[in-house]
Specification:
Oligomer: single chain
CATH superfamily of the largest domain: NagB/RpiA/CoA transferase-like
Number of strands: 12
Order of helices and strands: HHHEHEHEEEEEEHEEEE
Structural class: alpha/beta
Number of helices: 6
Number of domains: 2
Helix content: 25-40%
Length: about 240
């Protein structure tokens, strides 16, 4: 955050404190608040968010499919490009996709699919398919956590009709609290920053506002396909 933004933020918070009749925070009060934030007390964790790694991965898959996702499990990252091609063919789509400019994702062997035409970057209005990584999956609801950044423009999550998400089994957490703890740990370094946007996505976009009938693709992709890489032994048992 720039110095100018820091000043504007401080001025805004000062105006709010003044309107509430509150004095500036004392060092002791500031220390108490900082300690509370650092503690990250968790809420009640439901039973379905508990289990060993294999159970959580299986539960994530079942919950995601219950939310109208399609999901395929592959043995390793090398199978991802072929799985993307298989999805496009199964849905009679052109073998064209917009790829998130993520170093890990773009480093896969996409040349193994000579019929697949890829473009990296933000999507265009005419793009039908995006392929992105995920930061985490949450087993209790089958939810994907997608962190924005230079390697993952958020528009890839919403603009194309078909969203293909690549997730590792080792990225699946039981509860939301576990996923957030993982995010804090990943972004805890001095040079690290929290993502500007963290999208939590459960299934394709839908609405029931029109005559109480479910319509897919209301505010985003009408299809959400997850390629789940079984990269841990517990997930294969």
């Amino acid at each position: 955050m720039s110095a100018a933004n820091d000043e504007r933020r401080a001025a805004t918070l000062a105006a709010i404190r003044q309107s509430l009749g509150r004095a500036p925070l004392s060092p002791a009060a500031r220390g108490e608040l900082d300690a509370r934030i650092a503690a990250h007390a968790t809420n009640i964790i439901p039973d379905r968010a508990r289990g060993d790694a294999g159970e959580l991965v299986d539960r994530f898959a079942a919950m995601a499919e219950a939310a109208a996702c399609t999901l395929v499990r592959v043995d390793d990252a090398a199978a991802v490009p072929g799985a993307v091609t298989d999805y496009l063919r199964a849905h009679n789509l052109p073998t064209v996709a917009t790829l998130a400019p993520d170093d890990w994702l773009t480093g896969l062997d996409w040349d193994s699919q000579p019929m697949l035409e890829l473009r990296q970057g933000t999507p265009r209005p005419e793009d039908l398919v995006s392929v992105t990584p995920a930061f985490a999956g949450v087993a209790e609801t089958g939810t994907l956590l997608l962190a924005s950044g230079p390697g993952h423009p958020s528009t890839l999550n919403f603009l194309p009709d078909h969203h293909v998400v690549v997730l590792k089994a080792s990225q699946v957490s039981g509860a939301y609290e576990d996923a957030f703890a993982r995010l804090r740990a990943a972004r805890s370094g001095a040079d690290a920053a929290m993502p500007r946007t963290l999208n939590m996505i459960t299934g394709p976009s839908r609405t029931g506002d029109i005559e109480l009938t479910i319509h897919l693709g209301a505010h985003g992709p009408r299809s959400l396909h997850i390629i789940l890489i079984d990269d841990q032994e517990a997930a294969r048992d």
